[in-house]
């Protein structure tokens, strides 16, 4: 007589089978069985996996602004470590559904919300122990002003998160946020930076232990920095207008994946609660050298294109084009060209002394020299031309300048 052992769960039961084959099996749990009672609803006390995409690491995170540029990177990194995600979205679900694959089956949940509807915000955060606010606007629209998004909206999310008992709140602000930004192109200065400053104050009032991250210009796939200068609408024929030819502006751009990793590391480290971090790249550059380098990466041969820079202050036709773009396309300006963007691109990045950076969060920063050629590859002239080996010289990277601590 043969005996087949099926190793399942106890208790052991015998099943009488006519014939030469007898089967000894262990009773399994089926979908018709009642659910196992939970001893506690505390997520930190539940069983956890090894930290991979198919495990649960004990974190349930609500990511506001998940469909944005930074949000997609943050969701991907959260899903890789086994985080359950609640992703609020507004408008077309097609923007959010692509994030379904960032986590395993059942780990990514979507929730429709509106920033001015507090009940929908409360529904989105009531099961979470971590809330990440990445909501931001580059320009004002008829439905949302800068204060609506960066101040009132941030305050509502922080207050409701505190009332719901959320443990950690990560708020994305902006470098150079100031109550009185220096005016350059616009008479009143950057409304974006001003609203970001008061947004930080609002978050601190409602959620004192919130972690605030201030990023500089962020570049990566589908960004608004590299592709802003690569777009044909930003140029004037074969020239590039810049404020003081870009020779008085210093930038320290940061890679989007580094910003997302800094947010993940801040969630894992309880010591980051209540602190402010500056998300800047490893090197500082003159804007003029950066733009020249972008052009050389895209065109290979600067003489063939006939490219040059000139002072924006002496060309009123460029600002007329900016105003025309805002008038014709108020909801989606062509090439991201609008007055607020032109104003902010000439603000020098100031890294404050004593304020920690991404390196203090354990992030290994990515250099522009290693990443920008890949990001600008779709804009390269004669993209499908098979160049012979060493036919074109590789463009020299821009010279980094020494960082100054203010």
From TrEMBL:
PANTHER family in UniProt: NADH DEHYDROGENASE [UBIQUINONE] 1 ALPHA SUBCOMPLEX SUBUNIT 9, MITOCHONDRIAL, NADH-UBIQUINONE OXIDOREDUCTASE 39 KDA SUBUNIT-RELATED
Keywords of the record: Ubiquinone
Protein name: NADH dehydrogenase [ubiquinone] 1 alpha subcomplex subunit 9, mitochondrial
Residues of the NAD-dependent epimerase/dehydratase domain: 62-277
GO cellular component terms attached to this protein's record: mitochondrion
Single GO term (MF): protein-containing complex binding
Source species of the chain: Tabanus bromius
Kinase recorded as keyword: no
Protein's UniProt keywords contain Cell membrane: no
Family statement drawn from the similarity comment of this UniProt entry: Belongs to the complex I NDUFA9 subunit family.
Cross-referenced Pfam families: Epimerase (PF01370)
Subunit structure: Complex I is composed of 45 different subunits. This a component of the hydrophobic protein fraction. Interacts with BLOC1S1. Interacts with SLC2A4. Interacts with CLOCK. Interacts with RAB5IF.
